[in-house]
Design goal:
The structure is a single chain. The protein is mainly β. The protein contains one helix and 32 strands. Strands 17, 19, 20, 22, 27, 28, 29 and 32 form an eight-stranded antiparallel beta sheet that branches. The N terminus is likely disordered.
C-alpha cells in the first residue's frame, strides 16, 4: 500500500501538468539553415516555469532563456535534426516537446506583419495584414496565422494575407507563417492583448503610398507655414511625389518623394485626409461619429534613401481633430540635425527631444512603426517608436489645442539641409491602422 500511495503521489506531482507548445518550426518541416523557434510552456508548479531551452541534439543545449516564452533563431548545417524544446519549473520538474527538422541549404523567406502592431491592445476582432517573400524560385505557396502554438486559425494561398480573426480577452503570442514551394517556411511573431467588449478591432488603410488624396506643399523658413505661392518646380523649394515606382520597391509599387531648390532649410510636405473633412478614402463622417470614436493609431511605413545623409530630417505625423480639439502626434527623425527622435509639443508649438537615437540606413529599406493614443481623458499619448526592429517606449503625454476641423489625417515631410541638397526618399507599404 505504501508503494502504491507513493506512486499515486508522483502521478499528481505539479510537473505532471507541464506542457511545452512549439509554434515554430513545425515538426517534420523542411527549413533553411537559420531556423526560428517560437515556444511557450505551462506547469502545474505553483512557483511557475523557471526557464525554457532548445536541444539541437541529445545533450547539446543550444539555447536557454529564463521564463516561459522563447523566441530565437538558431543556425544549423544541412541535415536532419531531432531537436527538443524543454521547460524547467521552479519545483524541480521538467517537460519536453520533440521537433524534427530537415535543414536544406536554401536561404529561407521573410514574413512582414503590417497589422496588428506588436504588443498592441486590440478588441475581439483583429485584422491581420502581412506579406512574405522567399528565395525559393517557385515563390510563396501560402500564409497562415497561429493564435497559439499548434492552432492554425487561418490559411490562404499566395504571398499576401489579409484576414479577420476573433479572440477572447487575454494575451496571445500569435505567429504568422509562410510556406514556400520548395518545402521551406519562415515565421514572424506578434504578441497582442485582447480586451473585452464587442467593438471591432483596428481597421487598416493599406498601401497608402499607392493611393490618391496626397497634396504637397513647400514650407519655408523661418515660420514654416505652407507657401501658397510656391510652385513644385521652385525656385524656392522643389518638391515632387511620383507613385507606382517598381524599383526600388518592396511591394512593386513604391512612391518617390523628392525635394531641392534654392531656399536652404526649406521642406517638402505631403498630407492625406483619411477620415472626415475632405476624406480621400470615402469616409466624410458628416455626423462626426467615426473620427470621435477612435483612440489608437499606428503609422507603419518602409522608407529607402540612396543618400540618407542629405536629409536634415524626416517627419511622420498622425493628426486627429475631434470635439473641438487638435491632436498632433508629430515625430521627426533628425538625421543631419543630430540623429535623434523629436516629438511635437502641441501647446508650445515646438519640438521636444526624446533622447532616442535615429540612424536610418542608406541604400536599404528602413521599417518604421509609430504607435499613439488619444487617452480617455483627452490627452495625447506618444506610445512607442520602432525603427528596424528596435522599439523605444515613450509613454509621453501632451495636451491638445483648439480647432474647428474634424477628421483624421497623416503627414509625411522631408527637410532640406544647409545647402538644400536635392534628395529623394522612396516610401512603400505605408499602412495606417485606426481603432
Amino acid at each position: 500500500m505504501r508503494k502504491f500511495a507513493f506512486l499515486l503521489a508522483l502521478s499528481w506531482a505539479p510537473w505532471a501538468l507541464a506542457t511545452v507548445s512549439v509554434s515554430a518550426p513545425t515538426n517534420g518541416s523542411s527549413v533553411a539553415t537559420t531556423v526560428q523557434y517560437v515556444a511557450s510552456a505551462t506547469t502545474g508548479c505553483a512557483a511557475g516555469v523557471s526557464a525554457i531551452g532548445i536541444y539541437s541534439a541529445p545533450g547539446d543545449l543550444a539555447y536557454t532563456t529564463p521564463g516561459n516564452h522563447l523566441n530565437t533563431e538558431l543556425f544549423f548545417n544541412p541535415g536532419t535534426y531531432n531537436t527538443v524544446v524543454q521547460e524547467w519549473d521552479n519545483c524541480g520538474g521538467s517537460s519536453t516537446t520533440p521537433v524534427t527538422i530537415h535543414v536544406s541549404g536554401v536561404a529561407g523567406g521573410q514574413v512582414t506583419i503590417s497589422a496588428p502592431a506588436a504588443n498592441s491592445t486590440v478588441s475581439s476582432t483583429v485584422q491581420y495584414v502581412a506579406s512574405a517573400r522567399t528565395s525559393c524560385p517557385s515563390g510563396v505557396s501560402a500564409m497562415g496565422v497561429y493564435p497559439a502554438p499548434g492552432q492554425l486559425a487561418y490559411t490562404g494561398k499566395g504571398a499576401e494575407l489579409n484576414a479577420l480573426l476573433t479572440f477572447s480577452p487575454g494575451v496571445y503570442h500569435t505567429v504568422v507563417q509562410e510556406w514556400d514551394n520548395c518545402g521551406g517556411s519562415s515565421t514572424a511573431p506578434v504578441t497582442i492583448t485582447v480586451g473585452g467588449g464587442s467593438t471591432s478591432s483596428g481597421n487598416v488603410f493599406a498601401n497608402l503610398q499607392q493611393k490618391a488624396g496626397w497634396s504637397g506643399a513647400a514650407l519655408l523658413p523661418p515660420q514654416y507655414n505652407m507657401c501658397g505661392s510656391c510652385s513644385p518646380s521652385g525656385p524656392q523649394t522643389t518638391f515632387s511625389m511620383t507613385q507606382n515606382i517598381s524599383s526600388p520597391s518592396l511591394s512593386g509599387s513604391a512612391t518617390r518623394t523628392s525635394i531641392g531648390g534654392q531656399t536652404v532649410y526649406s521642406d517638402g510636405f505631403w498630407n492625406n485626409h483619411l477620415i472626415g473633412d475632405f476624406s480621400s478614402r470615402g469616409m466624410p463622417d458628416p455626423n462626426h461619429t467615426i473620427a470621435s470614436s477612435l483612440h489608437s493609431f499606428t503609422y507603419d511605413v518602409y522608407f529607402y534613401a540612396d543618400d540618407i545623409g542629405a536629409s536634415q530630417a524626416l517627419e511622420f505625423d498622425i493628426n486627429q481633430f475631434v470635439n473641438g480639439y487638435s491632436y498632433i502626434w508629430g515625430h521627426e527623425c533628425r538625421i543631419a540635425g543630430g540623429n535623434e527622435w523629436d516629438i511635437w509639443d502641441n501647446p508650445g508649438q515646438k519640438w521636444h527631444p526624446t533622447g532616442i537615437p535615429c540612424h536610418p540606413a542608406s541604400n536599404a529599406w528602413n521599417h518604421l512603426v509609430i504607435q499613439v493614443q488619444r487617452t480617455s481623458d483627452n490627452h495625447l499619448l506618444f506610445r512607442s517608436i520602432t525603427l528596424n526592429g528596435v522599439t523605444s517606449t515613450l509613454n509621453y503625454y501632451e495636451n491638445p489645442t483648439p480647432t474647428t476641423w474634424h477628421g483624421v489625417t497623416i503627414n509625411y515631410q522631408q527637410d532640406g539641409n544647409y545647402a538644400q541638397t536635392p534628395y529623394s526618399i522612396w516610401l512603400d507599404k505605408l499602412n495606417f491602422t485606426y481603432q
